[in-house]
Automatic annotation (TrEMBL):
This is THIF-type NAD/FAD binding fold domain-containing protein. GO terms for molecular function: nucleotidyltransferase activity; thiosulfate-cyanide sulfurtransferase activity; ubiquitin-like modifier activating enzyme activity. Gene3D superfamilies: NAD(P)-binding Rossmann-like Domain (3.40.50.720). Residues 27-264 form the THIF-type NAD/FAD binding fold domain. GO terms for cellular component: cytoplasm. GO terms for biological process: protein modification by small protein conjugation. It comes from the Bacteria.
Length: 382
């Protein structure tokens, strides 16, 4: 037993025993009118962000009997997480959130299939996985991350339940699958807000510039409403609302939103991606054998290229001592070396594996043809 969390082992044992015997741990749920335990067991749900709200959502879905969870989060457990997360303990400090949460969920529900992805969403979960998932859930903490998640779900027509908190409440937004004319989160933002590159407050920041106020009350309430929306959708009864405003004072109500004609998040791919034999573990050289010489496969994020000296025309050794501004200099001629990035896979080293360039498993990659035409291809599971 873990201090402060009595009964965790007994719950896991009860579930395992129940699934092996006549009495199931889910028998009480099956008594609920309209409940479909088999649909939950067959579902794969992607959870982007497993901080406070993500902890609640992942725990709730696992206990409800969802069969497979993909947990994606690039961050580590901090001490301020401990007052708002049931899956993290003091012994987990500085461990990867996704991995720690996955291990806790396996102990809680031994039958659960759970995969941690220690990476930002765009590198951790491929578009193919988003398209195949029964549902995608967002519990990320910046506008930019929410826009990135929304954009990737919009491209492949994935269903999305997106959540956010504020000190005394929060919100939950539902984006139905394959309905590009439905209003979305981005419809309620200005063009500036949609393009704003905000950064999350780190839980390790000094107290005078520290993270935003937060509590378990807001996280638990928003997590519960998000779980409710997710379960409704997974069992074939999607919520009628698109935006739910939640207040700790006791008022929770749907908010009417309308489609913004200028919102760019309503243009899904219509062409089915061509399957590739290559996977995220394939090298660039192996991948390129599947394309014609004039094809230009690209990534979704920039990757760094080797530093190149434009004076010498070489890839030089760096100078032993950088100058006072910490720029990098060519050891041969002293010229300034500038960092260069690319999304063109032909620019990458031939022996580099795609995952090392930030390419997610089962990613759908854009390809530019010789005449500028665009198509998409999908990596295999590998």
């Amino acid at each position: 037993m873990i201090d402060g969390l009595p009964g965790r082992e007994s719950v896991a044992t009860d579930m395992a025993d129940g699934l092996r015997g006549r009495e199931s741990a889910y028998d009480r749920q099956r008594l609920i009118p309209g409940w479909d335990q088999d649909r939950l067991a067959a579902a794969t749900v992607v959870v982007a962000g497993v901080g406070a709200v993500g902890n609640e959502i992942a725990k709730n879905l696992a206990l409800a009997g969802v069969g497979r969870l993909i947990l994606c989060d690039p961050d580590a457990v901090s001490v301020t997480n401990l007052s708002r997360t049931v899956l993290f303990t003091p012994g987990d400090l500085h461990g990867p959130k996704a991995e720690v949460a996955a291990e806790s969920l396996r102990r809680l529900v031994p039958t659960l299939q759970v995969e941690p992805r220690i990476a930002p969403l765009i590198s951790g979960v491929g578009l193919g996985e988003l398209a195949d998932a029964a549902l995608v859930i967002g519990a990320v903490d910046t506008i930019r991350a929410r826009m990135q998640l929304l954009g990737r779900c919009a491209l492949v027509g994935a269903a999305l339940v997106d959540s956010g908190t504020q000190p005394w409440g929060g919100e939950v937004r539902f984006r139905p699958p394959d309905q590009p004319d439905e209003p979305c989160y981005a419809c309620t933002l200005t063009e500036h807000q949609r393009s704003h590159s905000d950064l999350p407050w780190s839980c390790f920041e000094p107290r005078d510039t520290g993270p935003e106020p937060a509590s378990i009350a807001a996280a638990a309430l928003v997590g519960a409403w998000t779980t409710t929306a997710a379960l409704e959708f997974l069992m074939g009864r999607p919520p009628a609302w698109r935006l739910l405003s939640i207040e700790l004072t006791g008022r929770t109500s749907p908010v009417q939103i309308s489609r913004n004609p200028s919102c760019p998040y309503h243009h899904p791919w219509t062409d089915h991606p061509s399957p590739l034999a290559s996977s995220a573990d394939t090298t660039v050289a192996e991948l390129l054998t599947e394309f014609a010489p004039e094809d230009e496969p690209e990534t979704w994020t920039d990757f760094p290229l080797p530093l190149f000296c434009r004076v010498c025309g070489l890839y030089p050794q760096l100078a032993d001592r950088p100058d006072r501004d910490h720029v990098q200099l060519c050891a041969r001629c002293g010229a300034l070396l500038r960092s260069v990035t690319s999304v063109r896979l032909r620019d990458a080293g031939s022996d580099i594996r795609l995952r090392e360039l930030g390419v997610a498993p089962e990613e759908i990659l854009p390809v530019r043809g010789a005449q500028g035409e665009r198509r998409c291809v999908r990596l295999s599971r590998g």
